[in-house]
């Protein structure tokens, strides 16, 4: 079943001929969900294997840990560069190149004989991060604005499930077959994704509409947009709220669980479970409401949940652990609603710079979230101070709410100017 591609139609009317790189059949949503899930799976799947990797190479654990920290840095850089490349050279070529590099890098990690070679190929694995931004752009370019937010909501379920199951899957592979098995699986998944991309992924950006200026000018145009800043800051502070939780929860409540890492992990899993629920709700309802409204609702849910948690922590001197983790679950629900709407807003700032916007926003979100968590960490110096942790998270969530209100106002003013 095919449908007319409005981008191709407009291009034909302007030039009198059809751009052969376009297709009337958009990629299936399932393909884009799998593509974005593969992009986030390598982030933490190898975490259970780090001690065994260190033992194999007889390397210091801090050095081996660069396979996580270095990978995160390379991911941010990849997002910025690859996003601009997709605008310049097209979505499909960047995906095929990124997945191909990922396959080679995964094989290289599996065959590495020393820590230096392993870290080199591990850094190269970050090329797959480009597929995350491309998946968002492809959804936006083949859907209306509200429909895109809905589809991104469904895709976000994949983003949440992959990191949740990754460490469990990776740990099982390590225990049964050794740590190299995880990278063999990465290579196999990459090969399967490459075959799927070759069959189902077609170009959605008209060649005549691709930007021809320099990359810095493109970044400057985005950074001069109030809409881009509003949506990106909303995502950054929303992510900062999550990062504060991830870094502070073990210190604040870990002592109440008798040192049980399993219990701590189970309770902390309430937040990603909430994200899955929020993403599902975004998929169901985002297409029926304006982006700004969805954004504000998501942020209000998080703020209200954290406010209840803060009140409970102040009033109860020996509250049950669920009095802390229950309200924190609303971080996940709020973020699950926020991210699809905010990403759609970012991609809508400039249609010809959608890839650049996706990559730049992703990097700024990650960096902004990490900076927010680092600042909050300066105040989290005492074990058991749940009210301090909840207060820090509420501040970050409130800033995200203000950014959401700003985004809604900017969109409302733009609609009034158009009408």
TrEMBL record:
Keywords: Cell membrane, Membrane, Plasmid, Transmembrane, Transmembrane helix. It is found in: Cell membrane. Residues 28-415 form the Major facilitator superfamily (MFS) profile domain. The keyword Transmembrane helix applies. PROSITE patterns: MFS. GO terms for cellular component: plasma membrane. It is a multi-pass membrane protein. The chain crosses the membrane at residues 29-50, 62-82, 94-113, 119-139, 151-169, 181-201, 228-252, 264-283, 304-333, 353-381, 388-410. The keyword Chloroplast does not apply. GO terms for molecular function: transmembrane transporter activity. This is Bcr/CflA subfamily drug resistance transporter protein.
């Amino acid at each position: 079943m095919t449908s007319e591609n409005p981008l191709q139609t407009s291009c034909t009317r302007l030039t009198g001929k059809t751009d052969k790189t376009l297709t009337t059949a958009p990629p299936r949503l399932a393909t884009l969900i799998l593509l974005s899930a593969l992009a986030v799976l390598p982030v933490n799947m190898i975490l259970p294997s780090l001690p065994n990797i260190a033992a194999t190479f007889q390397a210091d654990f801090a050095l081996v840990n660069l396979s996580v920290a270095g990978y995160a840095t390379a991911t941010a850089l990849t997002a910025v560069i690859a996003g601009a490349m997709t605008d310049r050279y097209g979505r499909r070529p960047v995906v095929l190149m990124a997945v191909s590099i990922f396959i080679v890098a995964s094989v290289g990690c599996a065959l590495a004989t020393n820590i230096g070679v392993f870290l080199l190929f591990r850094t190269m694995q970050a090329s797959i991060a480009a597929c995350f931004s491309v998946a968002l752009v492809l959804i936006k370019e083949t859907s209306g604005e509200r429909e895109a937010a809905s589809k991104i909501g469904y895709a976000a379920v994949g983003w949440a499930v992959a990191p949740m199951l990754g460490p469990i899957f990776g740990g099982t592979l390590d225990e049964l077959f050794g740590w190299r098995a995880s990278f063999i699986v990465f290579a196999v998944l990459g090969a399967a994704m490459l075959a799927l991309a070759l069959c189902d992924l077609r170009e959605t950006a008209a060649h005549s509409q691709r930007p021809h200026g320099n990359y810095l000018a493109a970044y400057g145009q985005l950074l001069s947009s109030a809409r881009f800043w509003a949506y990106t800051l909303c995502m950054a502070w929303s992510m900062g709220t999550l990062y504060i939780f991830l870094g502070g929860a073990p210190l604040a409540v870990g002592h109440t669980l008798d040192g049980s890492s399993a219990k701590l992990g189970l309770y902390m899993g309430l937040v990603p479970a909430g994200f899955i629920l929020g993403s599902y709700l975004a998929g169901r309802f985002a297409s029926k409401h304006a982006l700004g409204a969805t954004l504000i609702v998501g942020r209000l849910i998080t703020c209200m949940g954290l406010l209840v948690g803060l009140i409970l922590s102040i009033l109860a001197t020996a509250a049950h652990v669920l009095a802390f983790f229950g309200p924190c679950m609303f971080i996940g629900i709020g973020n699950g609603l926020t991210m699809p709407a905010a990403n759609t807003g970012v991609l809508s700032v400039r249609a010809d710079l959608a890839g650049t916007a996706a990559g730049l926003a992703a990097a700024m979100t990650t960096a902004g979230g990490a900076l927010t968590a680092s600042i909050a960490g300066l105040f989290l110096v005492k074990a058991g101070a749940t009210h301090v942790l909840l207060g820090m998270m509420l501040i970050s969530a409130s800033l995200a709410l203000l950014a959401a209100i700003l985004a809604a106002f900017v969109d409302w003013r733009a609609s009034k100017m158009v009408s």
